């Protein structure tokens, strides 16, 4: 889903002159749900305090492109090349209200933003059905294995599939108890087709949008900036089992989102790790002891 964020920008004249030569305007930046997840994560980690240029690099690039597009459409310049040498684009403006409104309450509180109250509707003709609108489901706060908050990058659909995972008893018990909210799996050459989308030839599908505006698409660089190019399979449920015995403990959990991170595999090799954010334990079956 695309979200349009309107914001003000300024072009600061590089020459020795007064402020009358500066150029100001309004632009519109289009953000995706994945962009908003990255922003929420950065806010919760304390990386974003007040300004646009504090946002994740990929998001800042989108604001830069929106400014360039708005300037070129304004008619004041013939094109990007006609102003970029003489003017410096100013990004350290306050986070726009259109963006702050899209953030959950906890992020708004961190950024000291209080939404303006909507005018009260005193109409006596409002129906009971309208007064009792169902509340939107609250966003779940996930905690990783290091005790830090984490945010899924990808949503899952109602039609998502079920994935079977085998694990050790200690991890199974923690998931059932609710003390382990994220399940991690190394993406190996022998198992990647279980976790990510592939084309007809069996090659990983690439998320082209995630690579836009980057200095390089080399895998080593992507791992360095923690920007995974893969697209996860749409997994709605995890079916968990302890080992392979007939009488093993099993459980079914609902997945609230999926993410990736760069890390190291069991053999110490650099790899991508897929993360399943566990929203709810649906059923637990204890095997015979």
CATH architecture identity of the largest domain = Roll
- CATH topology name of the largest domain, in short, is Archaeosine Trna-guanine Transglycosylase, Chain: A, domain 4
Largest sheet: 5 strands, mixed
| Helix-strand string | EEHHEHHHEEEHEHHEEE
Beta-strand percent range: 25-35%
**Quantity of strands, as a count:** 10
Based on helices, strands and strand pairing, what is the structural class?
Answer: alpha+beta
CATH superfamily of the largest domain: Hypothetical protein
- How far apart are the termini? 48 Å
Shape: elongated
How many domain modules? Answer: 2
Lateral strand order in the biggest sheet: 6-8-9-10-7
| Helix percentage range | 10-25%
Please specify the SSE layout and strand pairing.
Layout (H helix, E strand, L loop, with lengths): L1 E12 L9 E10 H12 L12 H18 L12 E4 L6 H4 L4 H6 L17 H4 L10 E2 L5 E2 L10 E7 L1 H9 L4 E5 L5 H4 L23 H6 L10 E8 L7 E15 L5 E16 L4
Parallel strand pairs: 6-8
Antiparallel strand pairs: 1-2, 1-3, 4-5, 7-10, 8-9, 9-10
What keyword list fits this structure?
single chain, 289 residues, Archaeosine Trna-guanine Transglycosylase, Chain: A, domain 4, five-stranded mixed beta sheet, 8 helices, 22% helix
Describe it.
This protein is an alpha+beta fold. It folds into 2 domains: 2-110, no CATH class; 142-285, Roll (Archaeosine Trna-guanine Transglycosylase, Chain: A, domain 4). 22% of the residues lie in helices and 28% in strands. It is built from 8 helices and 10 strands. It has helices spanning 33-44, 57-74, 97-100, 105-110, 128-131, 169-177, 192-195, 219-224, and strands at residues 2-13, 23-32, 87-90, 142-143, 149-150, 161-167, 182-186, 235-242, 250-264, 270-285. The strands form 3 sheets. Strands 6-8-9-10-7 form a 5-stranded mixed β-sheet. A 3-stranded antiparallel β-sheet has the order 2-1-3. The radius of gyration is 23 Å and the shape is elongated. The termini are far apart.
């Amino acid at each position: 889903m695309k979200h349009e964020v309107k914001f003000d920008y300024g072009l600061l004249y590089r020459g020795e002159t007064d402020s009358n030569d500066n150029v100001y305007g309004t632009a519109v930046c289009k953000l995706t749900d994945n962009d908003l997840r990255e922003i929420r994560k950065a806010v919760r980690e304390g990386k974003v305090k007040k300004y646009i240029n504090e946002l994740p690099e990929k998001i800042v690039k989108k604001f830069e492109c929106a400014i360039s597009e708005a300037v070129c459409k304004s008619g004041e310049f013939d094109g990007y090349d006609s102003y970029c040498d003489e003017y410096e684009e100013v990004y350290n403006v306050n986070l726009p209200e259109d963006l702050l409104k899209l953030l959950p309450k906890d992020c708004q509180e961190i950024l000291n933003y209080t939404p303006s109250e909507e005018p009260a509707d005193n109409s006596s003709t409002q129906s009971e059905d309208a007064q009792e609108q169902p509340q939107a489901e609250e966003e779940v706060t996930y905690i990783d294995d290091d005790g830090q908050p984490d945010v899924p990058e990808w949503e899952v659909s109602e039609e998502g599939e079920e994935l079977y995972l085998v694990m050790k008893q200690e991890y199974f018990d923690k998931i059932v108890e609710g003390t382990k909210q994220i399940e991690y799996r190394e993406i190996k050459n022998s198992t990647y087709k279980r976790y990510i989308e592939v084309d007809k030839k069996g090659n990983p599908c690439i998320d082209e949008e995630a690579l836009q505006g980057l200095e390089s698409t080399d895998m080593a660089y992507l791992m360095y900036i923690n920007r995974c190019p893969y697209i996860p399979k749409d997994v709605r449920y995890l079916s968990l089992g302890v080992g392979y015995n007939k009488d093993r403990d099993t459980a079914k959990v609902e997945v609230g989102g999926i993410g990736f991170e760069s890390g190291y595999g069991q053999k110490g090799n650099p790899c991508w790790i897929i993360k399943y954010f566990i929203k709810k334990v649906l059923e637990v079956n204890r095997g015979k002891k």
